[in-house]
Amino acid sequence: MKTLADPQHALADGLDAIRAEFQVPDGFPPAVLAAAAEAAKRQPTDHVDRTNRAFVTLDPATSTDLDQAFAIEAAGADLLLHYAIADVAWFVDDDGVIDREAWTRGETLYLPDRKAGLYPPILAEGAASLLPDGPRPAIVFTVRIDPSGAVALDGVERALIRSRAKLAYATAIDADLPAGFADLATRIQRDERRRGASRVDPPEQEVERVDGALALRFRPRLVAEDRNAALSLATNMAVGQALLAHHTGLFRVMAAPDDAAKLRLRNTAKAFALAWPDAQPLADFTRTLDAAQPRAAAFMLAVRRAGHGASYAPWHDGETPWHAAVAATYAQATAPLRRLADRYVIRAAVAVANGQPVPAVVTAAFDRLPKVIARADATAGRIDRAVIDLAEAIMLRSRVGDSFAAVVTDTDDRGARIQLSDYPIIARVDTTAMPGDALIVRLAAIDMQRRTIEFKRVH
């Protein structure tokens, strides 16, 4: 949803209504903008000089809020990932006006036409962003990856870096990227298979115009995106391990899908005519899917929705925080320009890696952040759902009265939830059909203001 495309502005009218409904901030208060302008002038003084290291960034071509830059070097059979992360804490004072505003937001909110940033653009897209137009302050995590894909945090330092190039997913070639980039990703993916991780990265949904009509489609993920995601995964796992060992931290946790969710996924696979052997674990099955195929892509989205959702948990004595999809202990530290919690995880990692006590303000934040981020995540999720509902309504508005094949994925006291067989659309229908049943449904009505679609069972 973060990059849902709308080149003809077909969604424009509805998007303004969504922004109003969810009270999405439009800009920043003057005091915050003024403080950010002053903070942007700060010169790094606590940073070692690493401008001789060949860092690059890899993001969507239009991105300007660049959280990460990376360099890779060989160390015998191991690879060393030097992962530079924007040093947001250098510009944001604890309990200052920028900090307080960030705590009210929690994270950057994305809609197809624009975003509501966590920090003012002069920082997020300027002084703190790892753009290639000059030295930038950063936190550099050095992560060791052995041939099996196991990771360990070798060091963390505040450093001054200079990105050599702003690379884009769609145009970057192997020659542009550091040697070892593909090998590192392969190692991480190999270790995921060993752990039994069920993490999936489905392609994102886009709205496009085809023969004068709107269509909701999946934008295939590029190889460079998957490889780049492996860098963040390796770093976040290494950070999570280090914080856990030092009895501190804030962790991303998620339970595995329960039996009911797995049954829904079985029925969803049936809806899409995907052959999922009864004895095959979900993680193994998802690795067989080709995300370039629309039905496989839609199933991958269903997998993402199947769990009870990820959340944050601070360290507690006697507990091992666990992320079922990653199949590991995991902390998020690689997107501080877009996620509030990352700024505090980074500060804790700097402290423990250098034998220093974790600042009290950071430890206190770990207890407060789960509720703040849960609220922000919930708002972001509702906005994403509203945008998809809007896109579905626009796409189907000329199809009222038409019939569609569908399969029941699950039922409750409100009827049956159905998955259309030829579209990435989930809806409800009033029927006594059972999970797994194939149906023909008719599109009975669309309410554009409420962004709802109504189906009736035909047979």
From TrEMBL:
It comes from the Bacteria. Transmembrane segments: none annotated. Residues 47-355 form the RNB domain. Signal peptide: none annotated. SUPFAM superfamilies: Nucleic acid-binding proteins. GO terms for biological process: mRNA catabolic process. GO terms for molecular function: RNA binding; RNA nuclease activity. InterPro entries: NA-bd_OB-fold (IPR012340), RNase_II/R (IPR001900), RNase_II_C_S1 (IPR040596), RNR_Ribonuclease (IPR050180). One of its GO terms (cellular component) is cytosol. PANTHER family: DIS3-LIKE EXONUCLEASE 2, RIBONUCLEASE. This is RNB domain-containing ribonuclease. It comes from Sphingomonas oligophenolica.
